[in-house]
User: Fold this.
Amino acid sequence: MNTTIKQLVRAAASNTRCLKKVGMESLCVLSQKTNCMVESNRSVQANAGFPNLYQSAATNLAPGQIGTVDFDPFTLVEGDLKTMFKEIHDELDLELLHDSELGEMSKYYFDGAGKAVRPVIAMCVGHALNHHMGTGYENVKNQRKVAIISEMIHTASLVHDDILDHAETRRGKLSVNTKWSLQKSTMCGDYILAVGSKILAQIGNQEVVRILSQVLADLVQGEFQQLQQTEDDENERFQQYLDKSFNKTASLMTYSCQANAVLSGANEEEIQAAYKYGKNIGIAFQLVDDLLDFVSSADQLGKPAAADMKLGLATAPVLFASQQFPVLNEMIARRFSQDGDVEEAFKCVIESGGLDQTRALAKQHCEDAIAALDIISNSNYKLALVGLCDKVLNRLN
Assistant:
């Protein structure tokens, strides 16, 4: 990693730890809920581009806190997901007539090294709605399939991302495109999606098929948005970033939650609550991921620091920083292609309020995710979903 960026990463990480000690309220002063982001079913809307930060409807939370619960979501659904990777391996092998290179490749990223956040969220939402509906556990079999499908779609997207980004490593080992050829890796990602689609058909619910099929369309659209030239207008540029973040990251969480709500027998209002929870925690997850690109070491991230800018991408910290350092607008427009652009932009972000604003926006989305659960009756799984928001915000721990 460039020496200058290494020094800035250490400084930023130190500042972030200090900020966390004094509480989230030190990061920003949230304004009143005026001209706030408008909810829509298909995108994250920001009025006049940059979102105004406001106090969420989650008023039952203490200032500066997302809430503290003792119910670990990963432990709660451990029984549902402990055999998930073995089942995925079996499904991938089932379609092959004999052991083959495709079998080895398709199972390569299903090694248990990932966090499995998406299936955990899907299962917690499923259980929370089952409890709310009083439907018992007859729905869990198909809800597990949704969780497994979410992990397969996510992993296939990682394969395709690594191909497009020319990544060399993933989770501490050689990336699939480095270990094998680009052509074989592309077909590997397609194969994982094909097997996941077969499992989806086995659920036998047309509405769930329609919902999860939207994820695949969104992922492709998100990749095209990432390849497009960035908008010249600052406000439109931030909206473009939010839309891309939904399509590439939040869509899978959103529709997995919605699908499991449908399988629980929930009504439209309850299904929308699950949708809003998934959407908001998904956007928050991406915002924090973009923040970590500036304040974590390469070892923590599993990828080089400032990786997004090296790919020509301007994420939330950079876009917020451009309000304070207009010189960034020229670098964003040329996708950080000139010598020294990445290092100079990195320095501007660290010296600006961009990191604080990004964390504050992520916190706002987590509060909105929690507020969406208000109509769901209390259970360990609901409390675990609240706790997940705290885990998303504090991924530096």
